[in-house]
Specification:
23% strand; alpha+beta; five-stranded parallel sheet
Length: 469
C-alpha cells in the first residue's frame, strides 16, 4: 500500500463527516481525506438557518443523549471530541401531546415509541384490545424473523393503539406507517425482547429494563447556536479537503483501489484513491455500486424513501400550550403530522419580545402529492390547522420558512437488516475498501448516523492495513 493513504468520503452529511473525523483520528499521519458533496452545503439533514434574527433548525432538531446500552450516545461523544460539550442544552418542556378527535391529549408515559408497557396508562388516547396479549407459550417473534411494527402491535393491542399512538410516533420520526416499517430496524430493543418474551407487554417492559434511564436525566439535547456548529467543527477537525458541488458519477475498481469520476459529463475529473466511504442515500449509492457490485446495488437500491416539508413560522405573542409540541395520527385527516413549539420546548430560544418559533412537519409516505403545493399554500394550510388544533386563531406570522426534504426519510421494510447484512458481507468479500455508511443502512437519527460513519472509517482502516496510532 502506497503512503500516504488517500480516502474519498462520498457524501458530506453527518455520517460522512463523522467518518472523516474518525479517519483523521485513527488513520496513519498524512492520510489524505477528501469529502465529495454534490450539493453546495455540508451537513445533510443538519441545517441551521435564521428567522427573526435567531438561529432555527431547518432540518434535524436534536439528538438522543444516550445509546441503547445507557452509555452516552455517539452524537454526544462526537460533540465532546469536537470541543462542543459545553454547548449542549436540553429541553425545558418535555411533555408532548397527541391530536385525538380534533383536540390535544397528553402523550401517556411508559411507552416505547408508543407501544405501551402498561395498558391502563394509554386509555386516555386509545382503547387496547381486551385480552389479546396472551401467553402462547413461545416468543412473539422467531429468532431470525422480522415483522412490521404495526402487524405485531395490532395482533396484541388492537387497531386504536397502532393508529393513535404507534403510527404517529413512528410517523414523526420516519414519515412512514407502522404497518410498513421493520420492527428490527426501527425498534431493535423491542425486537430483541420479543425474541424472548411471550407477551408484548412483557417485551416492552424487558426492553425498557435493559436500558434504564436515571430519573430526571435528559433524553434529548441540541447545541446552542444550532446543529450546523457540529458540522463546521467536524469539517475543521477532520482536516479533510472538502469538494462542494462535486457529484461523484461513477466508481471503478482499479488494481490498487478506486477511480472516481467526478463532475459534469463533458469535463469529467478522474481521481484515484485507495478507499471509499460511500455515505450517500441508498439510491445514489446503488447507482455507484452498479458497476463494481451489481448484486449489492440491486439490494441496496430497493430501499424507498419518504419526502417531507418543514414549515417554520415566527408568531407574535401567540397563545400556546405549555407543551413541547404534538403529533397527529393520520386518521385525523390533517396535512400536519407533527408540530414543535421551539420557543416553549427549548428555553435557550425564548425571546423577551414574545416572538414564538413554531415548526410543523408535513408529508407522509405515499402522500407526496400534498408536497407539490406552493410554499405559500403549505404555510397557509399549516397556520389554519394549527389554529384549529389549538382552538384559537393564531396571529399572522412575521417571518417564515419552508424547507423541503425530498427523499429524506428511509422506509425500512421488514427484512431490511438481513438485506443490509448480505450487502455488506458481499462487499467485504469482494471490495473491502468500499464501505457503506448513513441513515439508508443503519437507521435514522444523529447518533446512529455518527456511529455508522465511525464504523465505516474503522473498516477502511482495517482494510488498508490497520491504524498507525
Amino acid at each position: 500500500m502506497r503512503q500516504p493513504w488517500r480516502v474519498a468520503v462520498v457524501g458530506g452529511g453527518i455520517a460522512g463527516l463523522a467518518a472523516a473525523v474518525r479517519l483523521r483520528d485513527r488513520a496513519p499521519a498524512g492520510t489524505e481525506i477528501t469529502v465529495y458533496e454534490q450539493s453546495g452545503s455540508l451537513g445533510g439533514k443538519l441545517r441551521t438557518g435564521e428567522l427573526a434574527g435567531q438561529p432555527v433548525e431547518f432540518g434535524a432538531e436534536s439528538f438522543l443523549m444516550r445509546d441503547p446500552t445507557g452509555a452516552e450516545s455517539a452524537a454526544v461523544a462526537l460533540a465532546r471530541r469536537l470541543g462542543l460539550a459545553e454547548k449542549i442544552v436540553h429541553p425545558t418542556v418535555g411533555q408532548a401531546a397527541l391530536v385525538v378527535d380534533g383536540g390535544l391529549r397528553p402523550i401517556p408515559g411508559g411507552t416505547l415509541v408508543g407501544v405501551p408497557g402498561d395498558l391502563d396508562r394509554v386509555t386516555t388516547v386509545a382503547r387496547p384490545a381486551a385480552d389479546a396479549d396472551t401467553d402462547g407459550g413461545r416468543p412473539l417473534v422467531g429468532p431470525d424473523a422480522d415483522v412490521s411494527v404495526g402487524a405485531l402491535v395490532r395482533s396484541r393491542f388492537g387497531d386504536e393503539v397502532v393508529e393513535r399512538l404507534v403510527d404517529p410516533m413512528l410517523g414523526g420520526v420516519y414519515a412512514g406507517r407502522a404497518d410498513d416499517l421493520s420492527l428490527v430496524t426501527t425498534m431493535p430493543a423491542l425486537a430483541r425482547a420479543a425474541r424472548v418474551e411471550h407477551t408484548l407487554v412483557g417485551a416492552v417492559r424487558a426492553a425498557q429494563a435493559a436500558a434504564p434511564r436515571a430519573p430526571g436525566a435528559p433524553v434529548f439535547g441540541t447545541l446552542a447556536g444550532g446543529l450546523s456548529t457540529l458540522v463546521e467543527a467536524a469539517v475543521t477537525a477532520s482536516g479533510a479537503t472538502v469538494r462542494r458541488d462535486a457529484a461523484v458519477r461513477e466508481l471503478t475498481a482499479t488494481g490498487t483501489g478506486w477511480r472516481l469520476t467526478v463532475g459534469p459529463t463533458r469535463e469529467p475529473e478522474l481521481i484515484d484513491v485507495d478507499a471509499v466511504v460511500l455515505a450517500v442515500p441508498a439510491r445514489p449509492a446503488a447507482r455507484l455500486l452498479a458497476g463494481p457490485a451489481p448484486v449489492v446495488a440491486a439490494g441496496v437500491g430497493a430501499l424507498d424513501y419518504a419526502s417531507v416539508a418543514l414549515v417554520t413560522m415566527v408568531l407574535p405573542q401567540p397563545r400556546l400550550p405549555e407543551l413541547s409540541g404534538f403529533l397527529v395520527p393520520s386518521t385525523e385527516g390533517l396535512l400536519i403530522k407533527a408540530a414543535t413549539f421551539f420557543t416553549t420546548k427549548w428555553g435557550h430560544l425564548r425571546r423577551p419580545d414574545g416572538l414564538a418559533l413554531v415548526r410543523a412537519s408535513v408529508g407522509r409516505y405515499g402522500e407526496e402529492a400534498h408536497l407539490q403545493r406552493p410554499d405559500a399554500d403549505l404555510a397557509a394550510t399549516v397556520h389554519r390547522e394549527l389554529s384549529a388544533v389549538l382552538g384559537t386563531p393564531l396571529p399572522a406570522p412575521v417571518d417564515g420558512h419552508v424547507q423541503r426534504w425530498g427523499g429524506a426519510l428511509p422506509q425500512y421494510a421488514p427484512g431490511h437488516a438481513d438485506r443490509l447484512a448480505a450487502a455488506r458481507t458481499a462487499l467485504r468479500a469482494t471490495h473491502p475498501t468500499l464501505v457503506l455508511a448513513g441513515a439508508g443502512y443503519d437507521g435514522v437519527g444523529i447518533p446512529v448516523c455518527v456511529r455508522s460513519g465511525e464504523t465505516a472509517a474503522e473498516e477502511i482502516i482495517t482494510a488498508l492495513g490497520g491504524s498507525a496510532r
